[in-house]
Amino acid sequence: MPLLLIFSLVIALLAILFAIQNTTVTPIRFLFWETEGSLALVLFIALVAGALISYLATAPGQIKQRMTISSQRKRITEVEGQLTSTQEELQGTEEHLQQIEEMNQAEGEKTDESTSTDEGETPLVE
């Protein structure tokens, strides 16, 4: 940003030097209008008119870009919210799965104990 400011100040200084050196009165004609003014004033008015036209030409694109950025920021916020809720849901599901696995292990141990006692008994022969 400072580089742009320095560049702008240099341009402004050159414009002032130009205006000081070119004070010649020049006739100005536009459509049906006719007057006289200094060359520097005429060029300054032309410069301002060009800058204004340039700004007006680029304004719709800048407005559209700002609107797009705004809508994208809103969308990012929504998606981040969905991500957070999905992560919380996943964490809850993982906890639930871990509880189920613990219950299955506990049931497996009970089954192992009951089969080992059954195997230790001698079968009855008829």
UniProtKB/TrEMBL annotation:
Stretches the record annotates as Disordered: 81-126
This protein's UniProt keywords: Cell membrane, Membrane, Transmembrane, Transmembrane helix
Classification via Pfam families: LapA_dom
UniProt entry tagged with the keyword Protein biosynthesis: no
One Gene Ontology cellular component annotation held by this UniProt entry: plasma membrane
Transmembrane segments: 38-57
Bias-annotated ranges (Acidic residues): 115-126
Residue span, Lipopolysaccharide assembly protein A domain: 21-83
Protein name as catalogued: Lipopolysaccharide assembly protein A domain-containing protein
